[in-house]
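Weekly structure sync, notes
Attendees: PL, DS, HV (note-taker this week)

Item 1: Endolytic murein transglycosylase
DS walked through the input record. Source organism listed as Uruburuella suis. Sequence as pasted into the shared doc:
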Amino acid sequence: MLKKTIKWLLIVLILLAAAWAALLFIPKSNPAAYRMKVEQGQGISAVSRKLDDDKIIYSRHVLLATAYLMGAHNQLHSGTYRLPANVSAWQILQRLRGGHPDTVTVRIIEGMRFAQMRNIIDNTADIRHDTRGWSNEKLLQAIAPDAPSSNPEGLFFPDSYEIDADSSDLQLYRLAYRTMQQRLHAAWDERQSGLPYQNPYELLIMASLVEKETGHEADRRHVAAVFVNRLNIGMRLQTDPTVIYGMGSRYQGRIRKADLQRDTPYNTYTRTGLTPTPIALPGRAALEAAAHPSAEKYLYFVSKMDGTGLSQFSHNLDEHNAAVRKYILKRE
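Item 1 (cont.): predicted structure, written out as tokens:
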């Protein structure tokens, strides 16, 4: 009886192994070649789910389990992989494990500083790092000798960019710079009348201030209005993100009274007008807000501190002080 049970178990195991091998090694015929995109930080679970949803593989579970058995589940390289129309799950795993995508995707997030963008690009695999070690001035000179500033801050559009593997990182910078120029000049051409900007670069500076002050869609145009209204009456902008930018490496997560009083070119508590350069990489929404601030005559705003990210806007100092008492002081 025991021998018979063992025999049947062996038969079942052989059949399961055969089925597993078939699902893993036999190519699946698909209508056309397939582009498989792996995002930065994406794991094998998400990739296998997408392949299964698009019916590129026979079994997601077989691919997933095999990846874990091979130790390939945490070795994915971001980028786009071009797969032939006839491809097996095993061949897909080999492409992923080899880590040589046909294209590489790099994501730059709104509100990042240029230094953070450079760090991301310097650490992106599967591209040539021709500019690594270059100064910002040398890099900008190679991309745009006629740039409006020798400081590259804000001149590159935050977005997801896809380039061919083994391309130069200089191609990424040129693409991001060109994209920002297109977006910025479109915003400049479509801007509302009467804004206190002398040129597109000043609109870009304003957009960077808006980007760093709020990420909330409902507040962006009001924040822009506050800064525009202050510029129009010669009032200092007094915005903390500019102070932080001017502090550089001295900023350790907290602004003190002495920091607000210490003069730097970016301290809008001690200096009137816009900062000399942008303070971050603004996205599309911030550019649009800078070009189309709300018509409200707000001069102040304060965070509601309620977890929504929204701010309370005020027309005068009395309203603002009441808002501070309501939203800030009551929590201290």
